[in-house]
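Late entry, written up from scratch paper. The run itself happened at the end of the previous shift, but nothing got recorded in the book at the time, so transcribing now.
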Amino acid sequence: MPESTAHLRIENCSRVHILPHVWVNRRGVRRVEFLNIEELVIESNAFSWNETLALEPVPQSGLAVSIINCSIPEIPSYAFKGRLTGITLNNVTIGTIRAFAFATLYGTEKLELIECVVGNFEAQAFKKFSSENLHIIGGHFSGSVPSRTWVDLEVYNELLIERVIIDTIHSSSFIIYGPKIFHLHGNHFVNMKGEAFHIRMRGKTLIRNNIFDTLAKGAFVGISVEDFVLKMEGIQVLQFENNTVSHFEKGCLLFNVTSFEPKLERILINHTCSCTLLETWGAELNFYSSPGQYNSQQQRDTSSQFWCRKHIAEETGGSFINVNDFSQDCVLTSGLQMLLIIILTSSLVLVAVILLIIILWRRHRSRNQKRWINIPTTSDDDSKNKKTDKNSKVQKKSENSQDSRLAIIVPDGHTYRETELNVIVEQAEPIVGHEYVDTAIDERVKENK
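Output as recorded:
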């Protein structure tokens, strides 16, 4: 490669191997690009450039590195080191990023990870350097992001994390100082632990359109504002807008209220609306906090900013309804349910009373029912003579399934079977044994008259 070469571009190779300190004798190179490399092997100190001149009074121009559409099995320790003006990894698949892979950088204007798929991070993979901008856009961090992955970084202008899918992000994964603006936009966090971000801001924080499958207590409480900024400019803005939360712990929306004025708008709870859960959601989500003091939590009513799904069928995508509007429906529904319960209970009581009255009336009627038995209408001799005939008749009637005990007595002493009579009994007593009525008494009484 000629010494006058300023821009080197390597593309469409099956395998490229970059050795340590390869750019030491290439002082004229200002930009290196690797495109469409099936396997890019990077050694330790592969992009170590101009380290000895880092502290000179007149800093020299650095090296800009771009790696696009490549596959890197591993980025070893101290792979990127020294005066690198820009580092861009675009559409790169990375197996593992080792500790101190990006460390001791000088004069870096931007560090960009765009649409990168990273299998595994080691702690302190990005260690102690400064940059004007840090952009992490798109891609997927399939493994967990351990604590202190981005540690002791100084970002002077913009910190942007956008459209990234992160499986698990642990506490203190980002320890960054000084950004003027922090964008956390359109990401999908499967599991976010408490205090995942420790960021000392010099300006506002915007958290918008993210999806949090699991959000732990105090996930954002580590975001604060530098003291000198608070003294000069006062409390900054923290906007938490249009974010979706599925599973959350009590106090997951803790914010540092001495540094920020939190503005919560349209927080989407990824669950079907439930009247029984409204109070629980409000108790777990309506919390702000002073710096680092979980015991000094103060509750504020922000229920008007919470939304839940309307129907179970729309769990994967559908319309949301404001929690306050749904609570009014709950009041109406509970009133209707109470009215239905009262009507149903009254109906059951009324039916039970009617059944009880019918049962008591039938029992009373069965006890007072008149039982008729045969009463002899002839004299003792005649009755004795006719006793045998009577028994035979009774047996015949019994065989014909007729009740032989029923008989009607008429004044002339004869029984008219085909005569219809209406008899009103005022008082009747049962006849004990065989009592006989002497009809001759009635005839003598008539004669005396």
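The chain has two domains: 7-327, 380-448.
(Scratch paper discarded after transcription.)
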